Amino acid sequence: MADRVVVYAYVAGDLVHVGQRRALQQAKNLGDYLIVGVITDGGIEAYKRRPVIPFCERLEMIQHLDCVDLAVKQESLDPVPNLIKYQPDIVAHGDDWENDFPGAEYMRSIGKKALRTKYYDGQSTTKIIEGIKQRIIQGTL
For residues 118 and 76, which has the higher predicted lDDT (pLDDT)? Predict the structure, then answer.
């Protein structure tokens, strides 16, 4: 299918929750084929806390979401090496970033699109971790 629109999105994918699922579904809705870069453990640790779930398990979980056509390894927060490799028509990321998200400038520089998906702030990995901590402190876990 040469005319298909390929979308690339990327995630940490740690403690997969409905917000991540919704963002990836929105990315899929932008085209015909969704490739999702799953950031490696080292890539995540370079900009935030160590992931709870190891990379190989996060990759498998993301690959099995119904909206994902292909899950691939992304070495860092910067998706440009994968954008060069997979040559998508669109890169998508949540609108929670104030400025351009990684990969957006590169895509525009080659005449392709960088689009934002609606960020779901009702859930996050950080909120899940904090909720678990509170329940432990309260003795309700």
Answer: 76
Contact 26, 50 (CB under 8 A): no
Distances (CA, A) of 134 to 15, 56, 139: 17, 29, 8
d(CA 103, CA 80): 6
CATH number belonging to domain 6-138: 3.40.50.620
The one-letter code for the residue type at 137 is I
Using alpha carbons, select from 41, 25, 23 the residue that is nearest to residue 93: 23
**CA pair distance 17, 123, nearest whole angstrom:** 7
Give the chain's mean pLDDT: 90
